[in-house]
Design brief:
CATH topology of the largest domain: Rossmann fold
CATH superfamily of the largest domain: Response regulator
Order of helices and strands: EHEHEHEHEHEHHHHHH
Number of domains: 2
CATH architecture of the largest domain: 3-Layer(aba) Sandwich
Largest sheet: 6 strands, parallel
Radius of gyration: 25 Å
Number of strands: 6
Distance between the termini: 59 Å
Strand order of the largest sheet: 2-1-3-4-5-6
Number of helices: 11
Structural class: alpha/beta
CATH class of the largest domain: Alpha Beta
Shape: elongated
Helix content: 55-70%
């Protein structure tokens, strides 16, 4: 990579793009080679110009910033992406990182912090502003707290969970069918599917699994 980091700006607000360009005038290490107003333009111009850094607004008309990031990282992997947004929410931060963004910053960030983020991401590194970092840490902690039973139970649909609940109560297929207004044959199929999805072989194991799940979520019952 050359000493100069070539930059593409994509934001549907002219003032935002003008503000960033004005802030960069005192930093000759950056050269803004394109500024566009939507995600589709960002993808096209990135493929044509191949800048080291694309700065994308998360919310833009047409193709939004996250989808544009995904396309840029797929079609022009030499371009690193820094996402900018007016506010950070968990879904946007995680979606941007999954799309391949190297950084996520709030637009209210100080100029010196934005410049440093541009240096890091433009050189292939990763960075997050403090609020986005806290969001990611919270998501990781939340994921790590999900039990193995919860992860397995997520494979079951609503009907299968209802059948599993009644298995834990010791009901037979016939009794479960009467409770749920389904045929015994249908319940038998559901039980077979439940055992397969949970990796179990016997009905009693399903009952034990359901009991452990209930113990972890007593307020749900």
């Amino acid at each position: 990579m050359s000493d100069i980091i070539h930059v593409l700006l994509a934001d549907d607000h002219d003032l935002v793009r003008a503000g960033i360009k004005a802030a960069l005038r005192g930093y000759p290490e950056f050269s803004v080679i394109a500024d566009v107003s939507d995600g589709n333009e960002a993808v096209r111009e990135t493929a044509r110009l191949k800048p080291e850094l694309a700065i994308l607004d998360v919310r833009m008309p047409g193709l939004d910033g996250i989808e544009a990031c995904r396309e840029i990282r797929s079609s022009t992997p030499s371009t690193n992406v820094l996402m900018l947004t007016s506010y950070a929410d968990e879904r946007a931060v995680m979606a941007a990182l999954m799309a391949g963004a190297g950084g996520f910053m709030l637009k209210e960030v100080r100029t010196d912090a934005l410049i440093e983020a541009m240096r890091i991401v433009g050189s292939g590194g990763s960075t997050l502003d403090p609020q986005s970092c806290a969001t990611v840490i919270g998501q990781i902690r939340k994921s790590s707290m999900v039990s193995s039973e919860d992860r397995q139970a997520q494979q079951l649909n609503e009907r299968e969970l209802a059948v599993l609940d009644l298995i834990a109560e010791g009901l037979t297929n016939h009794e479960i069918g009467e409770r749920l207004f389904l045929s015994e044959k249908t319940i038998k199929h559901h039980v077979s599917d439940i055992l397969g999805k949970l990796g179990l072989t016997r009905r009693v194991h399903a009952a034990t699994f359901a009991t452990r799940l209930r113990a972890q979520h007593p307020d749900d019952h």
